[in-house]
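Quick start: read one record
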Amino acid sequence: MLSPRAIKKFRARPSRDFSRWKSISVNELQRRADKLPYAPPNWKQLSHLQRVCFVIGARMRRFAFWNDTGTGKTFLSISLMQYFMMTGDSKHNLVLVPNKTNKWEWAEEGFDKHAAKMKYVVLHGSSARKLQQIIDNPDAQAFVETYAGFTRMCCDLKKVKRKGKKAQNKLVPNRTRVKKLAAFFDGVYADESTYLSNKSALPYRLLNQLSKTAKTFFCLSATPFGRDVTMVWAQMFLVDRGDTLGETLGLFRGAYFDEKVNYWGGYEYKLKPNAKNMIAERLNHGSITYPADESDLPRLNRKSFHTSLGETADAYYERAKAQLKASHGNYQEMKNAFLRMRQISSGFVGYRDDETGDKAKFVFPANPKLELLESLVTRIPEHYKFIIYHEFNYSAGVICAMLKRMGIKHVAINGMVKDTQKPLTQFKKKSNDVRALVLANSAGGYGLNLQVARYGIYYESPVSVIMRKQTEKRFDRQYSMHSHVFLWDCIVRGTADESILAFHKEGKSLWKAILGRGVDTIFAR
């Protein structure tokens, strides 16, 4: 137990309030930017929100941005990297992301789009190969890797004996390697930093070593914690070594929680009355929060997220595309080939068994599109509801299985669901904990009012332009509960996904284009 004196001393610490920066004028913000030793890169391209965060980050060097999804944390981070390369504070930056798909998103939608002259490396392959890529690129300013990949890079797999149990393979940190990486990376950007919220887990322990020596360290997340407020302590400790929320988790708990021994002999912690407000005020010392409603985003924020086919699926896709070419205008053959192309981009292909005549499916060993969808779902704050649109019944099954594994309560409406009113009522209830609606395009095109949802994700878009507009309007409509809504597309590069979305933007019929202009011009890869 901590002494009341230690807790009192912690609570009496002087505190900054960066939330006040959100109300400063444009002229005052410009004045503060002009005082920086170097002119901020990309200043004209940054939104007001990003400019506020940039000036804070440039002055503090270590900070947490709890900005809502879609507010431009990637561009903000790249601008800060460029600035600190100018000041000499960071020569090599490490960008950590949750999933493989996020790595390429940083590459294509981040560096390629906003910093074409900046040299970056997306680490890939085995751990040994990734380490060699770092050695071979000493002049690269940024290296992008997943939390899991970085953990494996820093560790050796060893047999570890446990008392009374068989020896098991376990990742054990390689101290020499960790020290070398900590010496190499002087800037760290932890995207979706909740992956570092467990102080006992390897990712946190490894990043803790980098945090000790890094000159710049930033945490980025729209949802730094869920129901467990203690998740934010570890992230803030990595940023400022305890300046905001205390040097130990015990001090943080002692200040804001009541402790008691539970039935099993362990400890339980319950937030003290008004502790949430006190924690929020204290967080303003080392972080800033920008909900989308406080940003200068358009009301409907559209974005496409990309991934690539696996090797096996790519070979199947080429065969299906060849069949489409060989159909010579036969509508049914073209339709069947196009259907298979769409299925392949979603991780499977349907066929009819020649012997039994039954319908069957071949499922590819990897489904990059589903992995992409999972990474998008993790970005959605848990107090918001969302819709996932799909075309195929098989996709509904894998999406629901994914949501179940993630612990997200959901309902589905499609051609296989007879009673649609019950799941619809469950989803629309504000007080209900059903967060997700898995909705077939054919079932969601007309008549549904789903203004309760703030996010709409197209796992598979309808081909019809009319159906696309109708499904969008299920949640992007008058009397929405939200001032800003988000519309995201999951796109597999070089597939029909891209062609469908392109023709939707033009408001033209994809089928007419295929029949009139030929396959090659529509599905060129």
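The first helix runs from residue 4 to 11.
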